[in-house]
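Students often ask why inverse folding is considered easier than folding. One informal answer: many sequences map to the same fold, so there is more than one right answer. In these notes we will look at a single instance of the problem. The structure comes first.
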Protein backbone atom coordinates (compact mmCIF):
# COMPACT_ATOMS: atom_id res chain seq x y z
CA UNK A 1 0.00 0.00 0.00
CA UNK A 2 1.14 3.51 -0.66
CA UNK A 3 2.57 4.66 2.62
CA UNK A 4 2.08 8.31 3.47
CA UNK A 5 5.30 8.60 5.41
CA UNK A 6 4.57 12.13 6.61
CA UNK A 7 2.48 10.72 9.45
CA UNK A 8 -0.42 8.39 10.07
CA UNK A 9 -3.64 7.94 8.10
CA UNK A 10 -5.38 10.70 10.02
CA UNK A 11 -2.88 13.18 8.55
CA UNK A 12 -3.68 12.42 4.90
CA UNK A 13 -5.08 15.76 3.78
CA UNK A 14 -7.97 16.37 1.44
CA UNK A 15 -5.42 17.80 -0.98
CA UNK A 16 -3.50 14.52 -1.23
CA UNK A 17 -6.57 12.29 -1.47
CA UNK A 18 -9.66 14.41 -2.13
CA UNK A 19 -12.98 13.11 -0.89
CA UNK A 20 -14.68 14.86 -3.79
CA UNK A 21 -13.42 16.55 -6.96
CA UNK A 22 -16.11 18.65 -8.68
CA UNK A 23 -14.48 18.43 -12.11
CA UNK A 24 -14.92 14.66 -12.43
CA UNK A 25 -17.17 13.90 -9.42
CA UNK A 26 -14.62 11.43 -8.05
CA UNK A 27 -13.88 10.36 -4.49
CA UNK A 28 -10.17 9.59 -4.68
CA UNK A 29 -9.96 8.57 -1.05
CA UNK A 30 -12.64 5.93 -1.52
CA UNK A 31 -11.15 4.58 -4.74
CA UNK A 32 -7.71 4.32 -3.18
CA UNK A 33 -9.04 2.48 -0.12
CA UNK A 34 -11.09 -0.01 -2.15
CA UNK A 35 -8.07 -0.86 -4.33
CA UNK A 36 -5.96 -1.39 -1.21
CA UNK A 37 -8.58 -3.66 0.37
CA UNK A 38 -8.90 -5.78 -2.77
CA UNK A 39 -5.16 -6.20 -3.27
CA UNK A 40 -4.62 -6.92 0.42
CA UNK A 41 -7.27 -9.65 0.31
CA UNK A 42 -5.46 -11.38 -2.54
CA UNK A 43 -2.11 -10.96 -0.81
CA UNK A 44 -3.48 -12.40 2.42
CA UNK A 45 -4.90 -15.44 0.62
CA UNK A 46 -1.64 -16.12 -1.20
CA UNK A 47 0.38 -15.79 2.00
CA UNK A 48 -1.89 -18.24 3.83
CA UNK A 49 -1.47 -20.79 1.03
CA UNK A 50 2.31 -20.30 1.08
CA UNK A 51 2.42 -20.66 4.86
CA UNK A 52 0.34 -23.87 4.97
CA UNK A 53 2.18 -25.42 2.03
CA UNK A 54 5.60 -24.86 3.51
CA UNK A 55 4.66 -25.94 7.02
CA UNK A 56 3.39 -29.26 5.65
CA UNK A 57 6.39 -29.60 3.33
CA UNK A 58 8.96 -28.84 6.04
CA UNK A 59 7.49 -31.49 8.35
CA UNK A 60 8.05 -34.13 5.68
CA UNK A 61 11.69 -33.17 5.24
CA UNK A 62 14.23 -35.05 7.28
CA UNK A 63 17.10 -33.14 8.85
CA UNK A 64 19.62 -34.27 6.24
CA UNK A 65 17.27 -33.43 3.38
CA UNK A 66 16.69 -29.93 4.76
CA UNK A 67 20.42 -29.25 4.88
CA UNK A 68 20.86 -30.35 1.26
CA UNK A 69 17.84 -28.49 -0.13
CA UNK A 70 18.09 -25.29 -2.11
CA UNK A 71 15.45 -23.48 -0.05
CA UNK A 72 15.42 -22.93 3.71
CA UNK A 73 11.82 -23.57 4.88
CA UNK A 74 12.26 -21.28 7.90
CA UNK A 75 12.94 -18.25 5.71
CA UNK A 76 10.02 -18.91 3.36
CA UNK A 77 7.62 -19.48 6.28
CA UNK A 78 8.81 -16.26 7.92
CA UNK A 79 8.33 -14.40 4.63
CA UNK A 80 4.73 -15.65 4.46
CA UNK A 81 4.09 -14.47 8.04
CA UNK A 82 5.50 -11.02 7.23
CA UNK A 83 3.22 -10.78 4.19
CA UNK A 84 0.22 -11.78 6.30
CA UNK A 85 1.01 -9.02 8.79
CA UNK A 86 1.38 -6.46 5.99
CA UNK A 87 -1.91 -7.53 4.41
CA UNK A 88 -3.76 -7.21 7.71
CA UNK A 89 -2.10 -3.84 8.30
CA UNK A 90 -3.14 -2.59 4.87
CA UNK A 91 -6.75 -3.68 5.45
CA UNK A 92 -6.96 -1.97 8.82
CA UNK A 93 -5.22 1.15 7.56
CA UNK A 94 -7.56 1.39 4.56
CA UNK A 95 -10.58 1.08 6.82
CA UNK A 96 -9.14 3.81 9.04
CA UNK A 97 -8.60 6.02 6.00
CA UNK A 98 -12.25 5.60 5.02
CA UNK A 99 -13.63 6.17 8.51
CA UNK A 100 -11.58 9.23 9.53
CA UNK A 101 -12.10 12.76 8.32
CA UNK A 102 -9.26 14.67 6.63
CA UNK A 103 -7.28 16.91 9.00
CA UNK A 104 -8.14 20.60 9.34
CA UNK A 105 -5.83 23.30 8.08
CA UNK A 106 -4.33 25.27 10.94
CA UNK A 107 -2.52 28.60 10.83
CA UNK A 108 0.39 28.43 13.28
CA UNK A 109 1.08 32.16 13.01
CA UNK A 110 -2.41 33.36 13.96
CA UNK A 111 -3.21 30.25 16.04
CA UNK A 112 -6.55 29.79 14.34
CA UNK A 113 -8.29 27.68 11.71
CA UNK A 114 -9.19 30.76 9.65
CA UNK A 115 -6.79 30.77 6.75
CA UNK A 116 -5.42 34.07 5.54
CA UNK A 117 -2.77 35.20 3.10
CA UNK A 118 -0.20 35.42 5.88
CA UNK A 119 -0.54 31.66 6.39
CA UNK A 120 -0.46 30.69 2.74
CA UNK A 121 3.04 29.20 2.99
CA UNK A 122 3.01 28.10 6.64
CA UNK A 123 0.05 25.77 7.04
CA UNK A 124 -0.08 22.93 9.55
CA UNK A 125 -2.67 20.19 9.77
CA UNK A 126 -4.68 19.44 12.89
CA UNK A 127 -6.11 15.89 13.15
CA UNK A 128 -9.91 15.65 13.23
CA UNK A 129 -9.84 12.57 15.45
CA UNK A 130 -9.61 11.76 19.14
CA UNK A 131 -6.38 10.84 20.91
CA UNK A 132 -7.24 7.12 20.97
CA UNK A 133 -7.63 7.14 17.18
CA UNK A 134 -4.28 8.90 16.87
CA UNK A 135 -2.55 6.16 18.84
CA UNK A 136 -4.25 3.40 16.84
CA UNK A 137 -3.40 5.16 13.57
CA UNK A 138 0.29 5.42 14.41
CA UNK A 139 0.43 1.79 15.51
CA UNK A 140 -1.14 0.68 12.21
CA UNK A 141 1.25 2.84 10.21
CA UNK A 142 4.27 1.52 12.07
CA UNK A 143 3.10 -2.11 11.94
CA UNK A 144 2.54 -2.06 8.18
CA UNK A 145 5.86 -0.38 7.40
CA UNK A 146 7.57 -2.78 9.82
CA UNK A 147 6.21 -5.82 7.96
CA UNK A 148 7.32 -4.36 4.62
CA UNK A 149 10.90 -3.96 5.85
CA UNK A 150 10.86 -7.45 7.39
CA UNK A 151 9.77 -8.84 4.02
CA UNK A 152 12.60 -7.01 2.29
CA UNK A 153 15.24 -8.36 4.67
CA UNK A 154 13.81 -11.89 4.45
CA UNK A 155 13.97 -11.72 0.65
CA UNK A 156 17.63 -10.78 0.92
CA UNK A 157 18.17 -13.51 3.53
CA UNK A 158 16.62 -16.06 1.16
CA UNK A 159 19.05 -15.17 -1.63
CA UNK A 160 22.02 -15.15 0.74
CA UNK A 161 21.01 -18.55 2.12
CA UNK A 162 20.69 -20.05 -1.37
CA UNK A 163 24.18 -18.80 -2.19
CA UNK A 164 25.53 -20.08 1.11
CA UNK A 165 24.05 -23.55 0.59
CA UNK A 166 25.51 -23.89 -2.88
CA UNK A 167 28.94 -22.85 -1.65
CA UNK A 168 28.62 -25.60 0.95
CA UNK A 169 27.73 -28.08 -1.80
CA UNK A 170 30.98 -27.31 -3.61
CA UNK A 171 33.35 -26.51 -0.74
CA UNK A 172 33.34 -29.22 1.91
CA UNK A 173 33.76 -26.87 4.84
CA UNK A 174 32.17 -26.78 8.26
CA UNK A 175 31.77 -23.02 7.87
CA UNK A 176 29.28 -23.49 5.04
CA UNK A 177 27.54 -26.42 6.70
CA UNK A 178 26.68 -24.45 9.83
CA UNK A 179 24.35 -21.74 8.59
CA UNK A 180 23.37 -19.16 11.24
CA UNK A 181 19.67 -19.29 10.33
CA UNK A 182 18.49 -18.37 13.82
CA UNK A 183 20.69 -15.27 13.89
CA UNK A 184 19.43 -14.23 10.46
CA UNK A 185 15.82 -14.56 11.58
CA UNK A 186 16.45 -12.51 14.71
CA UNK A 187 18.08 -9.71 12.70
CA UNK A 188 15.32 -9.75 10.07
CA UNK A 189 12.65 -9.23 12.74
CA UNK A 190 14.49 -6.89 15.12
CA UNK A 191 16.29 -4.48 12.76
CA UNK A 192 13.04 -3.27 11.14
CA UNK A 193 11.67 -2.46 14.58
CA UNK A 194 14.69 -0.23 15.19
CA UNK A 195 14.18 1.39 11.75
CA UNK A 196 10.53 2.18 12.47
CA UNK A 197 11.29 3.44 15.97
CA UNK A 198 13.99 5.71 14.56
CA UNK A 199 11.70 7.05 11.85
CA UNK A 200 8.94 7.78 14.38
CA UNK A 201 11.34 9.71 16.57
CA UNK A 202 12.63 11.59 13.53
CA UNK A 203 9.11 12.64 12.54
CA UNK A 204 7.67 13.58 15.91
CA UNK A 205 10.65 14.74 17.98
CA UNK A 206 10.06 18.24 19.40
CA UNK A 207 6.65 18.61 17.77
CA UNK A 208 3.10 19.05 19.05
CA UNK A 209 2.40 15.37 18.52
CA UNK A 210 -0.27 14.19 18.30
CA UNK A 211 -2.18 17.49 18.06
CA UNK A 212 -0.36 18.54 14.87
CA UNK A 213 0.68 16.65 11.75
CA UNK A 214 4.37 17.03 10.79
CA UNK A 215 4.79 19.37 7.86
CA UNK A 216 8.47 20.16 7.47
CA UNK A 217 11.48 18.43 5.91
CA UNK A 218 11.88 16.00 8.81
CA UNK A 219 9.40 13.67 7.13
CA UNK A 220 12.04 12.98 4.46
CA UNK A 221 14.17 11.31 7.12
CA UNK A 222 11.40 8.76 7.44
CA UNK A 223 11.35 8.24 3.70
CA UNK A 224 15.05 7.45 3.91
CA UNK A 225 14.77 5.10 6.90
CA UNK A 226 11.85 3.13 5.51
CA UNK A 227 12.87 2.85 1.86
CA UNK A 228 16.65 2.60 2.15
CA UNK A 229 16.56 -1.13 3.15
CA UNK A 230 14.13 -1.85 0.31
CA UNK A 231 16.37 -0.06 -2.21
CA UNK A 232 19.45 -1.95 -1.01
CA UNK A 233 17.64 -5.26 -1.46
CA UNK A 234 16.79 -4.27 -5.05
CA UNK A 235 20.50 -3.79 -5.73
CA UNK A 236 22.03 -6.68 -3.77
CA UNK A 237 19.45 -9.40 -4.44
CA UNK A 238 20.19 -9.84 -8.19
CA UNK A 239 23.91 -10.13 -7.48
CA UNK A 240 23.41 -12.91 -4.90
CA UNK A 241 21.02 -14.91 -7.07
CA UNK A 242 23.31 -14.60 -10.11
CA UNK A 243 26.20 -16.02 -8.11
CA UNK A 244 23.94 -18.76 -6.69
CA UNK A 245 22.88 -19.76 -10.18
CA UNK A 246 26.51 -20.22 -11.24
CA UNK A 247 27.24 -22.34 -8.18
CA UNK A 248 24.16 -24.54 -8.76
CA UNK A 249 25.43 -25.30 -12.25
CA UNK A 250 28.84 -26.28 -10.86
CA UNK A 251 27.20 -28.39 -8.15
CA UNK A 252 25.10 -30.33 -10.68
CA UNK A 253 28.02 -31.13 -12.96
CA UNK A 254 30.14 -32.05 -9.95
CA UNK A 255 27.64 -34.57 -8.62
CA UNK A 256 26.43 -36.09 -11.90
CA UNK A 257 29.67 -35.80 -13.94
CA UNK A 258 27.66 -34.68 -16.97
CA UNK A 259 25.67 -31.74 -18.33
CA UNK A 260 23.02 -33.10 -20.69
CA UNK A 261 19.68 -31.64 -21.82
CA UNK A 262 18.10 -32.65 -18.52
CA UNK A 263 20.62 -30.65 -16.50
CA UNK A 264 20.29 -27.68 -18.85
CA UNK A 265 16.51 -27.77 -18.48
CA UNK A 266 16.78 -27.74 -14.69
CA UNK A 267 19.20 -24.79 -14.81
CA UNK A 268 16.90 -22.93 -17.21
CA UNK A 269 13.87 -23.36 -14.92
CA UNK A 270 15.86 -22.27 -11.91
CA UNK A 271 17.17 -19.19 -13.78
CA UNK A 272 13.63 -18.21 -14.75
CA UNK A 273 12.56 -18.58 -11.14
CA UNK A 274 15.39 -16.33 -9.90
CA UNK A 275 14.61 -13.74 -12.59
CA UNK A 276 10.97 -13.60 -11.51
CA UNK A 277 11.99 -13.18 -7.86
CA UNK A 278 14.15 -10.19 -8.77
CA UNK A 279 11.78 -8.57 -11.28
CA UNK A 280 8.61 -8.91 -9.22
CA UNK A 281 10.30 -7.44 -6.18
CA UNK A 282 11.53 -4.45 -8.21
CA UNK A 283 8.13 -3.97 -9.86
CA UNK A 284 6.49 -4.11 -6.44
CA UNK A 285 8.58 -1.39 -4.82
CA UNK A 286 9.85 0.87 -7.61
CA UNK A 287 6.58 2.92 -7.56
CA UNK A 288 7.18 3.69 -3.86
CA UNK A 289 10.72 4.83 -4.55
CA UNK A 290 9.54 6.99 -7.46
CA UNK A 291 6.72 8.53 -5.40
CA UNK A 292 9.06 9.27 -2.49
CA UNK A 293 11.59 10.96 -4.76
CA UNK A 294 8.79 12.96 -6.39
CA UNK A 295 7.54 14.17 -3.02
CA UNK A 296 11.04 15.27 -2.02
CA UNK A 297 11.56 17.07 -5.35
CA UNK A 298 8.22 18.85 -5.02
CA UNK A 299 9.15 19.95 -1.51
CA UNK A 300 12.52 21.44 -2.40
CA UNK A 301 12.04 22.53 -6.01
CA UNK A 302 8.28 22.82 -6.49
CA UNK A 303 5.85 25.51 -5.43
CA UNK A 304 5.33 26.30 -1.77
CA UNK A 305 1.67 25.28 -2.03
CA UNK A 306 1.17 22.31 -4.40
CA UNK A 307 -2.22 22.38 -6.11
CA UNK A 308 -4.79 19.62 -6.22
CA UNK A 309 -3.81 19.07 -9.88
CA UNK A 310 -0.31 18.11 -8.72
CA UNK A 311 -1.65 15.38 -6.47
CA UNK A 312 -4.08 14.24 -9.17
CA UNK A 313 -1.04 13.71 -11.37
CA UNK A 314 0.49 11.54 -8.62
CA UNK A 315 -2.71 9.55 -8.08
CA UNK A 316 -1.97 6.87 -10.74
CA UNK A 317 1.37 6.27 -9.01
CA UNK A 318 -0.39 5.92 -5.66
CA UNK A 319 -2.85 3.44 -7.16
CA UNK A 320 0.06 1.42 -8.55
CA UNK A 321 1.53 1.27 -5.06
CA UNK A 322 -1.83 0.30 -3.62
CA UNK A 323 -2.02 -2.63 -6.03
CA UNK A 324 1.55 -3.90 -5.99
CA UNK A 325 2.55 -3.64 -2.31
CA UNK A 326 -0.12 -5.93 -0.82
CA UNK A 327 0.04 -8.29 -3.81
CA UNK A 328 3.57 -9.26 -2.83
CA UNK A 329 2.11 -12.04 -0.70
CA UNK A 330 0.04 -13.27 -3.66
CA UNK A 331 2.83 -13.67 -6.18
CA UNK A 332 5.26 -14.89 -3.51
CA UNK A 333 2.86 -17.81 -3.18
CA UNK A 334 3.67 -18.80 -6.76
CA UNK A 335 7.40 -18.09 -6.41
CA UNK A 336 7.92 -19.90 -3.11
CA UNK A 337 4.77 -21.62 -2.00
CA UNK A 338 3.06 -23.86 -4.56
CA UNK A 339 4.68 -27.28 -5.00
CA UNK A 340 4.29 -27.06 -8.78
CA UNK A 341 6.42 -23.92 -8.90
CA UNK A 342 9.39 -25.24 -6.96
CA UNK A 343 11.47 -28.36 -7.62
CA UNK A 344 9.69 -31.43 -6.26
CA UNK A 345 11.31 -33.80 -3.84
CA UNK A 346 12.79 -37.06 -4.99
CA UNK A 347 11.05 -40.00 -3.30
CA UNK A 348 13.21 -42.73 -4.78
CA UNK A 349 14.75 -44.97 -2.13
CA UNK A 350 17.98 -45.46 -3.98
CA UNK A 351 21.26 -44.89 -2.21
CA UNK A 352 22.79 -41.44 -2.21
CA UNK A 353 25.63 -40.56 -4.53
CA UNK A 354 28.75 -38.82 -3.41
CA UNK A 355 30.75 -36.67 -5.77
CA UNK A 356 34.17 -37.91 -4.80
CA UNK A 357 34.39 -40.47 -7.60
CA UNK A 358 33.89 -39.67 -11.27
CA UNK A 359 33.90 -43.39 -12.15
CA UNK A 360 31.07 -44.12 -9.72
CA UNK A 361 28.89 -41.40 -11.23
CA UNK A 362 29.54 -42.59 -14.78
CA UNK A 363 28.71 -46.20 -13.87
CA UNK A 364 25.44 -45.06 -12.36
CA UNK A 365 24.50 -43.30 -15.59
CA UNK A 366 25.02 -46.49 -17.61
CA UNK A 367 21.78 -48.19 -16.53
CA UNK A 368 18.17 -47.33 -15.68
CA UNK A 369 18.74 -47.44 -11.93
CA UNK A 370 21.67 -45.09 -12.26
CA UNK A 371 19.59 -42.74 -14.40
CA UNK A 372 16.97 -42.58 -11.66
CA UNK A 373 19.61 -41.91 -9.01
CA UNK A 374 21.21 -39.24 -11.19
CA UNK A 375 17.80 -37.55 -11.52
CA UNK A 376 17.44 -37.68 -7.73
CA UNK A 377 20.81 -36.03 -7.21
CA UNK A 378 19.77 -33.10 -9.42
CA UNK A 379 16.53 -32.78 -7.50
CA UNK A 380 18.33 -32.79 -4.15
CA UNK A 381 20.56 -29.95 -5.30
CA UNK A 382 17.65 -27.79 -6.43
CA UNK A 383 15.05 -28.76 -3.84
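Output (designed amino acids):
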Amino acid sequence: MASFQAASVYCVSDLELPTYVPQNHTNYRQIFSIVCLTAAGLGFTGSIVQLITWIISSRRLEDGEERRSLVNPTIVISLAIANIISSVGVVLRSMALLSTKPPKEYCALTESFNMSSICEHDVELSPSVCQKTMIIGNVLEGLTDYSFIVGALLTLSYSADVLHRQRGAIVESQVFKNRPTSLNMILCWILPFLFIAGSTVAVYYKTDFPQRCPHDSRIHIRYLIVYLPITLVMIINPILLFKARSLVKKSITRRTATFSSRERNIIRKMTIRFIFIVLLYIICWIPNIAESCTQVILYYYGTDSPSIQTYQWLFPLLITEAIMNPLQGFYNCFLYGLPGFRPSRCFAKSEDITSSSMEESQSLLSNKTGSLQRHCVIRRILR
